[in-house]
DNA sequence: TATCCCCGGCGTCATGTGAA
DNA sequence: TTCACATGACGCCGGGGATA
């Protein structure tokens, strides 16, 4: 089973502290190989043809859902990575602010003396 | 080396949701 | 209301580390 390419580059998830705007890929313009477009319902007659049509529809649905599930997992993973990056950024900011506060307190104490 | 356990990825089904 | 798509839940499978 082939893998689809990533829609978002690493740069877009860079730890800037901002939430990235996810780029959703445009839907494929052509059906994958092996998928046969169903004949129009009016051209079906025998029970066998109906059964084949039903099978074709089911396979098409399964294939689309397979792809959708992959894409969904990819996006979820990307989202989690983004959150982890944001956590790291905020932790750094917090550390910096605490140090800054400490420095200001020291300064204030020395001036007060 | 064999076995166990955990984890991540996958396919499928059921269901929610928005658009036509 | 119907349809297509997105996503949560579930079970299965294979890889890799830990242990006897």
From TrEMBL:
**Keywords of this entry:** Coiled coil, DNA-binding, Nucleus, Transcription, Transcription regulation
Residue spans making up a coiled coil are 80-107
**MF term (GO), any:** RNA polymerase II cis-regulatory region sequence-specific DNA binding
CDD domains in the record = bZIP_CREB1
Show the GO cellular component annotation of the record. Answer: ATF4-CREB1 transcription factor complex
Q: Which SMART domains match?
A: BRLZ
Q: Which locations, inside or outside the cell, does it occupy?
A: Nucleus
Task: Please indicate which superkingdom the organism of origin belongs to.
Answer: Eukaryota
Taken from the record, one Pfam family name reads: bZIP_1
Q: Which residues form the BZIP domain?
A: 55-106
Which InterPro entries has this protein been placed in? bZIP, bZIP_sf, Leuzip_CREB
Its recorded name reads: cAMP-responsive element modulator isoform X3
- Organism of origin is Phyllostomus discolor
């Amino acid at each position: 089973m082939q893998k689809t390419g990533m829609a978002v580059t690493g740069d877009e998830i860079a730890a800037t502290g901002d939430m990235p705007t996810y780029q959703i890929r445009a839907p494929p313009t052509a059906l994958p190989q092996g998928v046969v477009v169903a004949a129009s319902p009016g051209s079906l007659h025998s029970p066998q043809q109906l059964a084949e049509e039903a099978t074709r529809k089911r396979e098409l649905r399964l294939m689309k859902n397979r792809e959708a599930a992959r894409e969904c997992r990819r996006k979820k993973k990307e989202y989690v990575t983004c959150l982890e990056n944001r956590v790291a950024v905020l932790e750094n900011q917090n550390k910096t602010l605490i140090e800054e506060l400490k420095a200001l307190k020291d300064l204030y104490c020395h001036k007060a003396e």
